[in-house]
Every structure is written in C-alpha cells, then in structure tokens.
Specification:
Layout (H helix, E strand, L loop, with lengths): L12 H28 L7 H6 L6 H12 L2 H17 L2 E4 L5 E6 L8 E4 L1 H22 L2
Antiparallel strand pairs: 1-2, 2-3
Helix pairs in contact: 1-3, 1-4, 1-5, 3-4, 4-5
Length: 144
C-alpha cells in the first residue's frame, strides 16, 4: 500500500492503526507508571524530570522500589512484560510475509533458534489489551 506522503510500501491501513494505537497506549501507561511512582513515593527520592528521561526498561528499579514494595508485584510484572513486547515492536524490521503483506518482524535470539517472529495483528491486539489491563490496575491504585 502507498500513501501520497511517501513512496515507500506500507502495511495495510488497519495494521498501521493498530501499530499507532499500540504505541499510544503504551506511552500513556509509561506516563501513568511515572505518575504512580511519584504519588506513592513518600521519601521524595524520585523526580519527574529524571523518571521521564529514563527509557521504559530503566524504570524497573523505581517500579520495584515504590509500586511493588507498597502494592505487590502484579503491576511490576505486567509492566515488565509490556516493555519487552513494546521493544519487539520498536526494534522490528519490515518484511513481506507469506500472505504477501507488509508487516513488521523481529528475530528471536540465537539461543532460542534464530527464527523470525512476525508481529501479527493478534500480537498487536493482545498488546493493546494488556495495556488496558495495566491502565485499570493503575487506576485502581490511584483510588478513582
């Protein structure tokens, strides 16, 4: 598929919409995680500017020290899973799949068999669904 703003071949519109939604919901939750850390941190150790500058994966110690310590590991575990899934999306490359469609893919690690992993619509939908779950959990922590 082509658009008038680029001459490069693109995935189908629905796939691109799911990609955009996946990025937006993750970014929203990343900010929500930072907000939750700051709200629960009674020590004053954490600073919005510093936390915002961190890559999502580097928020893990703060999530553990503040959120998991006070509320259990469920949010921490889900956020860590989402960071890994998001990294797969962000660090992907475009392929033409067996259905002759443009999609994204990554490769598994050599130790895991060095195979290609296609980022399917189902993968993106599951990612969006898990982000909804995290958002609900963070809203419950907030108390409203």
């Amino acid at each position: 598929m082509y658009e008038n703003y680029t001459r490069q071949a693109l995935p189908e519109k629905h796939y691109r919409e799911l990609l955009g939604t996946a990025l937006c919901v993750f970014n929203s939750n990343n900010a929500f995680i930072i907000e939750t850390i700051l709200r629960l941190d009674i020590s004053g150790k954490y600073d919005w500017y510093h936390l915002t500058d961190l890559e999502s994966g580097k928020l893990k110690p703060s999530v553990h020290n503040v959120i998991a310590t006070k509320c259990g590991s469920e949010v921490e575990d889900l956020f860590a899973e989402l960071v890994e899934r998001r990294n797969r999306i962000i660090h992907s490359y475009r392929i033409t799949n067996s259905s002759n469609q443009q999609v994204l893919a990554t490769k598994t690690l050599i130790k895991d068999g060095n195979t290609q992993f296609e980022i399917t619509e189902d993968y993106l939908l599951e990612f969006i669904k898990l982000n909804d779950k995290l958002s609900s959990m963070l809203h419950n922590l907030r108390g409203y």
